[in-house]
Amino acid sequence: MASHIVGYPRMGAKRELKFAMESFWDGKSSAEELQKVAADLRSSIWKQMDAAGIKYIPSNTFAYYDQVLDTTAMLGAVPARYGWDGGEIGFDIYFSMARGNASVPAMEMTKWFDTNYHYIVPELGPNVKFSYASHKAVNEYKEAKAIGVETVPVLVGPVSYLLLSKPAKGVEKTFSMLSLLGKIIPVYKEVICELKAAGVSWIQFDEPTFVTDPDSHKLQAFVEAYSELELSLSGMSVIIETYFADVPAEAYRTLTSMKCITGFGFDLVRGTKTLDLIKDNFPKGKYLFAGVVDGRNIWANDLAASLCTLEELEGIVGKDKLVVSTSCSLLHTAVDLINETKLDKEIKSWLAFAAQKVVEVNALAKALAGQKDEEFFSANTAAQASRKFSPRVTNEAVQKAAAALKGSYHRRSTNVSARLDAQKNKLNLPILPTTTIGSFPQTIELRRVRREYKAKKISEEEYIMAIKEEINRVVKLQEELDIDVLVHGEPERNDMVEYFGEQLSGFAFTANGWVQSYGSRCVKPPIIYGDVSRPKPMTVFWSSTAQSMTSRPMKGMLTGPVTILNWSFVRNDQPRFETCYQIALAIKDEVEDLEKAGINVIQIDEAALREGLPLRKSEHAFYLDWAVHSFRITNCGVKDTTQIHTHMCYSNFNDIIHSIIDMDADVITIENSRSDEKLLSVFREGVKYGAGIGPGVYDIHSPRIPSTEEIADRINKMLAVLESNILWVNPDCGLKTRKYAEVKPALQNMIAAAKLLRTQMASAK
């Protein structure tokens, strides 16, 4: 019985690639040194999977930024502004597309389906000249073969690549990306030909857009694409991999009818309805890559249940055609549980990171082949029972409080226009008020202080003094810049979700459970293992301290319940909405304590609300209902004069704008600049927004410093579709990933642009 891994984490257990990339970007190391770190990581991963007995080991899943950008490089689809003049695409062009440079901005970044991973959005149009410009797929296959490991090269499929793209600047928004299929297929043929010459026997195409309700036009594009590739693929075995949700019935029929495809990969964790389609009709003689091991969470697989599913599937597809697989790439989970030496032993027994999931896949494959490891399965059964019956998982008081929420909408008693009037009198802000999103740069010294405090190398008094000094510096800087609504900079927080999870019951934390979010940015998601409550205030001390340092309004900074949920590894033993309601009640307690402490502006970030939107349209309404309800629960009890902000970033918000309005926040700040002001189009199309809104005026994920004129131009575009009395001026997102040398001039230019427009508006009256 064979085993397969869809993909694997890239950063390394100790984030080796992250530090190597950042060193390269800072000019402290060479391209050769970065390539050496990456090659060592790849080699280690391939050898690990080979030693574990995995038959179908992936290659070309190791990206320096993301796999879609790798495909853009492979196709030579470089926007003209980067000055690429042909030839093999190197780091200079690759990282300029991802991060921008001193003269040109980066390409848009958005969420990878409903995950917290991001990808760089291709910019395409009818005049793009495609060419084979990156031989990475072939090079990595040869690299693995040289160390004795046979791999399956993985490519983002041609149809999904086009459907994940957007029209380039100046191209009609109605331009059909699929019209470019005939132009990119020749490049795919070149890649396939070269892979075949190198000795590849199996190749994998990731086509996750199969799960997103594709219409007949898109399904026909899939048929045409692989029919056109059929001759090139002859002599090779071909896997089409789908993941993250059920494959719709019509899409399933289209996919499984493709003659040139050898095997089909399905997510049978999040796509349980696909099981019924397989049972009803699976093509004879084809391979089924059964994704029964969850690639997106950290819970140990219920091996007994998975084995039952696999045995049933074996009777349908045949013993020699069933392959045990992960549900998706293991990119979305942490690397190796062996590094967690301080994690609670009971909770640790419930978990499996990427390395352990590889073992689970192989254990299931061996069990199907009659080589069941009874000791391994028995230990797994004991861990499943331990988790199910552990008293630390359940808190009856929390469950009752969450159950009591049903039947109420939890809205504030006054409409937003009346509240804004009350807040205007209270806060006394100018037109086009300025603010930032929350965090300020996380300096080396600041990280050292937090690290030494956690290691008990400095006392609590020393830690508090150091953090107070940092807050004071951030407050003084904002006053010098003349920002209207201040933030304390979040120096006490390494991560916006981890910080709150550490102070809530029902959460556990890892030392090295890092997961890539984008580029070199890694996050360490907390683990929600039980019912959630707030034992004591979490932010009141720091927010009150910051407010005492200034007469200007100071924002209290919280992470919203939906974002905490979506950016955590969530318990899978109860519906997600129940856990979210529990978190909402905890945040509600914090909001009300901040208000009592005299904080008049409270930001409840919901950066991940759009991210959690299900991929199937039929499931949208239910998700948005409980997600928006959870946000309203957090602030339904505050006074009209308390201004509630929220923040969202790096997703396509236009399709949920009415749900955003229904959140009933007083002010929303939202990413806008990197997505080429796509958000503004919804207001041009007639959507009326009466609350305060701050579409981001510059991209903080790029080191590039925008000019005053550029920012003023962006604000003017906003004023063309939004009333001046509701418009705020702010960056796209928090500033923690930037350096002060970038932040200070960028904010100076932002403030100057706001003042310039205030003057122009006053003189025009």
UniProtKB/TrEMBL annotation:
Q: Which GO terms describe its biological process?
A: methylation
Catalysed reactions listed for this entry: 5-methyltetrahydropteroyltri-L-glutamate + L-homocysteine = tetrahydropteroyltri-L-glutamate + L-methionine
Has the keyword Oxidoreductase been applied to this entry?
Answer: no
Positions contributing to Zn(2+) 2 binding: H658, D662
Q: Which residues bind L-methionine?
A: I437, G438, S439, E490, D605
Q: How is the cofactor bound?
A: Binds 2 Zn(2+) ions per subunit.
For this protein, the record's InterPro entries field holds: Cbl-indep_Met_Synth_N (IPR013215), Cobalamin-indep_Met_synthase (IPR006276), Met_Synth_C/arc (IPR002629), UROD/MetE-like_sf (IPR038071)
Top-level EC class as recorded in UniProt: transferase
Q: Which NCBIfam families match?
A: met_syn_B12ind, PRK05222.1
Q: What is the name attached to this protein's record?
A: 5-methyltetrahydropteroyltriglutamate--homocysteine S-methyltransferase
